[in-house]
UniProtKB/TrEMBL annotation:
NCBIfam families: citrull_CtlX. InterPro entries: Amdntrnsf_FN0238. Residues 21-40 are annotated as: Disordered. Coiled coil: none annotated. Pfam families: DDAH_eukar. The lineage of its organism: Bacteria, Pseudomonadati, Pseudomonadota, Alphaproteobacteria, Rhodobacterales. This is Amidinotransferase. It comes from Falsiruegeria litorea R37. Transmembrane segments: none annotated.
Length: 308
């Protein structure tokens, strides 16, 4: 089975002090206020999601965040690091000050211990210059076609994007994307998700017809079927999905997202992947969904050493 686009191992961060992040509410239109104490609900949703993914054969590496560093968005680790075939890891500069504290060495240490890591390229120092590129939130990566699709925003600085694409050999395709109120889409991964044989894309949110067609053409060049999502479906996180490999290929997405999809769209997905819904309404109040919660491990696992 081709694992290039759909990793079998992932990292997830278990939240103990979850809340809607006050530092990101200004540019994240998907975010809604949360009551003061919802952390237990968030944790229960997280645990159920992990159990479901493991039940489908996905290797989930869970790390705890006990809230001591005041990191309300830590449940979304895909923004601060990414991994790539060939043993490469990237660390990213984050826009919000409290999100900059989400980076943690124990995750990288685990990757080095259990997987083959040849280098770690650290862009996080660019935060001191006011630059941000929030990982696979800001970029939706086509690992097969080597393309980084990017909705322009304050979370995706073009200077850092160019550096990433040069180091990791991706072609950048950047475009404007706005919601119905004209606000820029804060992260590309709420707009689109790329699987091995299909792609979910909110085409109506890309106002420039030429750029919109470029996105479609480049996805179709690799043989993918493009599933066009409506703005309403995007609002319900239908684009914030990730294809994974477990016992078979699956598409992890929220229950809300799956409910928003039309039967004919689900039919396209089911030709190559099984939709696996995760019920996470509390976690979605922070403005992200299933894709944001999962950092894929696109690395080769080290062989297990025999005990002495």
């Amino acid at each position: 089975m081709n694992l290039l686009q759909a990793p079998q191992s992932v990292v997830m961060i278990r939240p103990h002090a979850f809340c809607s992040n006050p530092e990101t509410q200004g540019d994240n239109a998907f975010q809604t206020p949360t009551p003061k104490d919802v952390s237990h609900k968030a944790r229960d949703e997280f645990d159920a999601a992990v159990s479901t993914l493991r039940g489908h054969g996905v290797d989930v590496n869970v790390f705890e965040d006990f809230g001591t560093r005041h990191t309300p968005d830590s449940v979304f680790p895909n923004n601060w690091f990414s991994t790539h075939a060939g043993g490469h890891v990237a660390l990213y500069p984050m826009f919000a000050k409290n999100r900059q504290r989400e980076r943690r060495s124990d995750v990288i240490d685990m990757l080095k211990r259990d997987f083959r890591v040849s280098d770690v390229i650290d862009y996080s120092g660019l935060e001191h210059d006011g630059l941000a590129l929030e990982g696979t939130g800001a970029m939706v990566l086509d690992h097969i076609g080597r393309i980084a699709f990017v909705a322009k925003s304050n979370r995706a600085d073009p200077v850092v994007l160019e550096r990433f694409c040069t180091h990791f050999n991706y072609e950048p395709i950047a475009f404007d994307a706005h919601d119905a109120a004209g606000q820029a889409i804060y992260h590309t991964n709420v707009l689109m998700g790329i699987g091995t044989d299909f792609a979910l894309v909110g085409l109506d949110l890309i106002p420039d017809a030429d750029r919109r067609q470029t996105v479609v053409d480049r996805l179709e060049e690799t043989g993918r079927e493009v599933i066009a999502l409506t703005p309403w479906q995007i609002d319900n996180f239908a684009g914030n999905a990730i294809e994974l490999t477990g016992n078979s290929r699956i598409l992890a997405l929220s229950s809300r997202a799956l409910d928003a999809l039309r039967p004919e769209q689900i039919d396209v997905i089911e030709r190559s992947a099984r939709p696996v819904p995760l019920t996470i309404p509390t976690l979605e109040s922070a403005g992200g969904s299933v894709r944001c919660m999962i950092a894929g491990i696109h690395l080769t696992r080290r062989p297990e050493r025999n005990a002495a």
